[in-house]
Amino acid sequence: MTAFAIEVALLLAVVFGLALAVGYRIGRKQRPPEPVQVAVPPPPAAMERQPAPATSVPPPEPPIVVEPAPSPQQDLFARLGIADMNAVPPLDDEEEEPPPPAVPSPTRPAPRARRRPPESLPGVRPPALAAPEGEGADDLKQLKGIGPQNEQRLNEIGIFHLRQIAAWTPEEAAWVGSYLAFPGRIEREDWMGQAKAILEGGAPPPRRRR
Question: What does 73-139 look like in DSSP terms, one character per residue?
């Protein structure tokens, strides 16, 4: 009995071992294969963009310089061996033009002396008339020393008649002489005496030619 039990036990152990081996093989076949790790090379570095080769540009052609044709005068100077036309000496026959004569500046007349105001003149102003009396003013130019200008100036101060001049006093004659800008002339030419002589019917004295 003991030997039989040992055999049965060994048989069971063998069967169990065979079952394990078969089960192991079957399980290994059904297990999915392990993934194979493939070493993937790293992506290549981005290629640097190389500049496009520059197209060769042909050098510009030099500009064509067209020299102007020489004038007949320049051609003549070139034949004579003269390079600079400005260097030609002037001909002996040519004379420099004389400068224009200076135009004399117009001479200004000398300014007249300002008349003194009547109130500042020496002497006494004679009585004056506002207008001629009677048939009109006398011809004061009958007196020696009175011309058209002096007659007009005497009329401006109210002297129109010979009788007014005949009645002048020495102070009044001095005032009129200063007013006419020739003091002492009335006394030298005796306007008062000449006027009295004409009024008394005598001929007026001969006038001096100017």
Answer: HHHHHHHHT---GGGPPPPTT--PPPPPPPPPPPPPPPPPPPPPPGGGSSS-PPP--SS--TTS---
